[in-house]
Amino acid sequence: MKFSIIIPAHNEEDTIRQVVEELIEAFKRVDIFYEVIVIQDNSTDGTRVIMEELTAQYPEVRAVHRASEPGFGKALRAGIEASTGDAICFVMGDHSDDSEDVVAMARKIHEGYDVVYGSRFIPGGSHKDYPHLKLIVNRLANWGIKWLFGVKSNDITNAFKAYSMRAIRAIEPVESDYFNITVELPIKAHLLGFSMVQIPVRWYGRESGVSKLSIARMSRQYLQTVLHLFIHRRSFAKSSMENVSGGAASRTRDWGPHWVVQRQTLFGKFLLLFRKHYWVRNFVKFAMKHTEPGRILEAGCGSALASIMLHKKRGDSIAALDISPDAIALAKRQAELASAPITVHQESILQMPFEDKKFDLCWNAGTLEHFEDPVSVVKEMKRVARVTIAIVPDDGWAWKALLETVRLLGPRIESYFNEEGYYKLYRTKELREVFEKVGFGRVVVEEFKNLGVFGWIAAAGFNR
Questions:
Q1: C-alpha angle 152/155/160, rounded to 5°?
Q2: Cα–Cα distance between 2 and 35 in angstroms, integer?
């Protein structure tokens, strides 16, 4: 992974050298491939000269000199365009951010998160010499954004964040020209369902130079951006994901909170226990009926309980794949509790890192319904295995009643079920058609119920 550090700099001759050299020293101590891109934005002091010296001295440092109309958002957009990394991080040129925190963000991106929030207001975070009026405005703005969008951060407006390039490409086009870009990017990433994590960071008040941030102008720009995104939030998320993936990707919210509550709350642990001892048994019975023991991949694994149970019953070699790092952590924990050897892969189900027919069975349950283009998912599952199984909820009254109930009960209960965003209930004919479009030699479809009312439809496709 290559990590691109983007530093906007307008008249920062007093600090820019220190910022760049501290970053270089911090990254020398870790095994992370990186580049530093300084956007010299219409400076009238010695910033340009200092950057020419730094680029000559350090091969990992590049400068982009902007001469057109200045603006913080414009500078960051120029940095994104100049970046050659797999992820980017925005660092201020006034020495307000700590270089060690940048390294911590790079590590979180390497773990698989798409967005890393830097928060000054959680345990371990700090802020020094923060102007009182700006602090009050900051806290009110962040509270309002959390309330409107449900973002899982208490420092959303902090520019100090890192993003995977796949998240940035989904967000584009970036529209903000000024400091409002600091809310546009994270809100759009949240609406698109990218995985996020918050880490504590340290912030230091400016010791030299002049702040470029006007509270009055900033507040107006922030408000306009937030209201625009709130009004158009549903149409934005739908059109953006269709542009990125042709409708194949899941448009659910961030899966992290869903898997975290399964591990950390009493009700979540109860649901996990219930799933383990009753719910997945029917899934395992179907797999045992139609397949022989062998190499098993659960793609879109979640807790991987079904594959773990399959291993316990007949000794299959199991692997688990999920795009959510929290799901992977939960799967590893469940495998440890069951003393079941497992290999885990944090990857997209749409592009799995395996050669053709590596597995005897690729399967999942409660996954396919979250994708608008299930054919793309099943096609990739078929590529990596001799047999493919997908199990989905049926289009019956019990599931419809459950979905409406959790929506009425609000986001807190929704987080246990994660039934927000795209979610499809299937009929037998629809699931069969998905498998037939992929081109299996033989397709078997069966129905069964849990608790006597919650219907499931299971399909098994056998390669020619």
A1: 110
A2: 8
The distance in angstroms from the start CA to the end CA of the chain is: 38
| Cross-strand pairs, 296 | 318, 361
330-387 per-position pLDDT tens digit: 889 889 989 999 999 988 898 899 999 999 999 999 889 888 889 999 999 999 999 9
Please write the tens of the pLDDT for every residue from 440-461: 999 999 999 887 888 999 999 9
| The pLDDT of residue 265 is above 70 | no
With cut-offs at 50, 70 and 90, classify the pLDDT of residue 407. low
User: Which domains are present in the chain?
Assistant: 2-245 (3.90.550.10), 256-462 (3.40.50.150)
Q: In the 3-class helix/strand/coil scheme, how is the chain assigned residue by residue?
A: CEEEEEEEECCCCCCHHHHHHHHHHHHHCCCCEEEEEEEEECCCCCHHHHHHHHHHHCCCEEEEEECCCCCHHHHHHHHHHHCCCCEEEECCCCCCECHHHHHHHHHHHHHCCCEEEEECCCCCCEEECCCHHHHHHHHHHHHHHHHHHCCCCCCCCCCCEEEEHHHHHHHCCCCCCCCCHHHHHHHHHHHCCCCEEEEECEEECCCCCCCCCCHHHHHHHHHHHHHHHHHCHHHHHHHHHHHHHCCCCECCCCCHHHHHHHHHCHHHHHHHHHHHHHHHHHHHHHHHHHCCCCEEEEECCCCCHHHHHHHHHHCCEEEEECCCHHHHHHHHHHHHHCCCCEEEECCCCCCCCCCCCCEEEEEEECCHHHECCHHHHHHHHHHHEEEEEEEEEECCHHHHHHHHHHHHHCHHHHHHHCCCCCCCCECHHHHHHHHHHHCCCEEEEEEEEECCCEEEEEEEEECC
Query: How far is residue 103 CA from its own chain's centroid?
Result: 19
Average pLDDT value for the chain: 85
Cβ contacts of 461 within 8 Å, gap of 6 or more: 378, 382, 387, 388, 389, 435, 438, 440, 442, 443
For 1-22, what is each residue's pLDDT tens digit? 899 999 999 999 999 999 999 9
pLDDT, tens digit, 9 for 90 and up, residues 71-96: 899 999 999 999 999 999 999 999 99
* 402 residue type, one letter: L
pLDDT for position 306? 93
